[in-house]
UniProtKB/TrEMBL annotation:
Signal peptide: none annotated. GO terms for molecular function: mechanosensitive monoatomic ion channel activity. It comes from Pararhodobacter marinus. The chain crosses the membrane at residues 144-162, 168-192, 224-244, 264-286, 307-327, 333-351. Residues 314-352 form the Mechanosensitive ion channel transmembrane helices 2/3 domain. It is a multi-pass membrane protein. Residues 50-61 have a biased composition (Low complexity). It is found in: Cell membrane. Keywords: Cell membrane, Membrane, Transmembrane, Transmembrane helix. This is Mechanosensitive ion channel protein MscS. Residues 41-73, 88-133 are annotated as: Disordered. Residues 354-417 form the Mechanosensitive ion channel MscS domain. One of its GO terms (cellular component) is plasma membrane.
Length: 549
């Protein structure tokens, strides 16, 4: 017994460090630290690469929209792109800083280890690596483990001295069981700790197909492992107390309370695990369908519906899981469902506007009135659809303003991004110009524009000539239109106007400015009122000074 006391107090610090490292050796702990730092550095590099790719994509998209935009959005709507580019640049800077900090920390730790190895004397053992100080009750117990062990040894000494040999043998046997359970608990807890630090690492092929799966797993799996560690701690304490006859686990498990509690815990754990698996499978499938690198590229409508499906399924899964958990706990959910029905009816009467939003949104989605990326006019506001929910639509207008419009205020949807679009050109020319000359000039301008590689693919047909559309105050208005790829009509129209202006200037076809003809009233005697005209000049450069006529 004295030898046991001596061993406990002599090795109290190494054992405390071993416990705080989660049952790892020094080499394992250093390897785990390096693996964690390497994983953090890789994550930072991946985020930086993704941010750089997003920035390059935003720049390419902005350049593509300079002369007419891309399908689904006119070139005027570029404020959101600038904001996205700025956000991508900020994210890239933050990711680069994180990568640099991780690399600096790794270099400092490597240098410190090398310096410690060089400065260490040959006789004494090298200094142990820095051990993290755990917080909470487990950390206090790990650092002061020798006190409860010493008390236990003292208790065993009293038993050996006061009890017969058979009792002492049983006490030693129980002590061995307690020690074995504690060692197994420490080893399993250390393995779970390493898994929590390392995180879930999926194969590259799976990550490429479902890029968000690993992030979702790493958001929930460490928390589940932490709960499992707590459960292991409780089990170890219970088995240790059972070994020293403080409690009787077998009789408690055979009792009605034990059976009920065990059944509830296992059922709730099974429901939660199945719900989590279903949620991960659903969201991963949606991510796979939205990933353009695998399979067919999802259309705008598919992206909208899949996003709505993911949100709606998540809400439904949470509600159903909560109902199952409450039912397994023993609560009667029938009154809850009845109360929820009454509450829903009351909310329906009190929130008719929201109900109208949801119902209108459902019908708009069924009718495929708009999708993310379309240019629409709703409730008098025109912009690019950036977000669609079951209750509202979010638009970004030409000034960059972000509008959230509830569906209850939408009485008409004008979509500019369906199948094709027209640029309608109303060109005013002077009354003295010949119609045939103007028509030929506009057709020549169209042919020149169609030869431009920047706009050739955006034009879907020939120029449609309508002829004289109106007689204005100072111009004859000629009308024509060009059929374009949806979303490109604005850019094509601006380019066409520029070419028409060049050809009109080259052929001396006048685009008149407004004229006004003044008629002075006459008296009954046929005399016209005096009309004074003042000519303003400075008397320089051959111009006369101010005169009145």
């Amino acid at each position: 017994m004295g030898l046991a006391f001596w061993l406990v107090w002599r090795n109290r610090r190494p054992v405390a460090e071993w416990l705080e490292r989660g049952g790892q050796t020094e080499a394992q702990y250093l390897e785990a630290q390096r693996a964690a730092e390497e994983a953090a550095r890789q994550i930072a590099e991946e985020e930086a690469a993704q941010a750089e790719a997003a920035r390059q994509a935003a720049l390419a998209e902005s350049e593509a929209r300079e002369d007419g935009g891309i399908a689904g959005a006119p070139s005027e709507f570029t404020m959101s792109e600038a904001a996205a580019q700025e956000a991508a640049e900020e994210k890239a800077i933050v990711a680069e800083q994180a990568a640099e900090e991780a690399a600096e920390r790794e270099a400092e730790e490597r240098a410190a280890r090398e310096a410690a190895a060089q400065a260490a004397a040959p006789e004494p053992a090298p200094a142990a690596p820095a051990t993290p100080r755990r917080r909470g009750p487990l950390g206090v117990l790990a650092r002061n483990w020798h006190w409860p062990v010493s008390l236990y040894l003292l208790f065993m000494l009293v038993i050996v001295l006061t009890r017969p040999g058979n009792a002492a043998f049983h006490a030693l046997l129980n002590s061995g069981q307690v020690l074995l359970v504690l060692l197994l608990g420490v080893v399993v807890s250390g393995a779970l700790t390493r898994m929590m630090v390392r995180g879930v690492q999926l194969p590259d092929s799976v990550t490429a197909r479902m890029p968000l799966l690993e992030k979702r797993l790493n958001a929930f799996v460490p928390k589940a492992l932490f709960v499992l560690r707590l459960a292991i701690f409780v089990i170890v304490i219970a088995v240790a107390l059972n070994a020293i006859s403080v409690i009787d686990i077998r009789s408690w498990l055979a009792s009605q309370i034990g059976l009920r509690l065990t059944s509830v815990l296992l059922s709730v754990a099974g429901v939660l695990i199945m719900s989590f698996i279903l949620w991960v499978a659903l969201t991963s499938w949606v991510d796979y369908r939205l990933n353009p690198e695998f399979g067919s590229v999802a259309t705008a409508r598919e992206r909208t519906l899949l996003t709505l499906l993911r949100n709606a399924a998540t809400i439904a899964l949470v509600v159903i899981t909560l109902m199952f958990v409450l039912s397994e706990i023993g609560l009667d959910i029938a009154p809850l469902l009845a109360s929820a029905g009454v509450l829903g009816l009351a909310i329906g009467f009190g929130a008719q506007k929201m109900v109208q939003d949801i119902i209108t949104g459902i019908f708009i989605q069924f009718e495929n009135a708009m999708n993310v990326g379309d240019v629409v006019t709703v409730a008098g506001t025109t912009g690019v659809v950036e977000r669609l929910t079951i209750r509202s639509v979010s638009l970004r207008d030409v000034t960059g303003a972000f509008h959230v419009i509830p569906f209850s205020s939408v009485d008409m949807v004008t979509n500019f991004a369906r199948e094709f679009g027209y640029f309608v050109c109303d060109m005013g020319v002077a009354y003295r110009e010949k119609t045939e000359d103007v028509k030929q000039a506009m057709f020549d301008a169209f042919e020149k524009l169609r030869m431009d590689p920047d706009y050739r693919d955006a034009i879907m047909g020939d120029l449609e000539w309508f002829g004289i559309n109106a007689f204005g105050d100072s111009a004859v208005v000629m009308r024509a239109r060009i059929k374009c790829v949806p979303g490109m009509q604005w850019g094509v129209g601006r380019a066409y106007n520029g070419v028409v202006k060049e050809i009109f200037d080259a052929r001396n076809i006048e685009i008149p400015f407004p004229h006004q003809t003044l008629f002075l009233g006459e008296s009954k005697a046929g005399e016209t009122q005096e009309f004074k005209l003042r000519l303003q000049g400075d008397g320089q450069n051959g111009l006369p000074g101010p005169q009145t006529r």
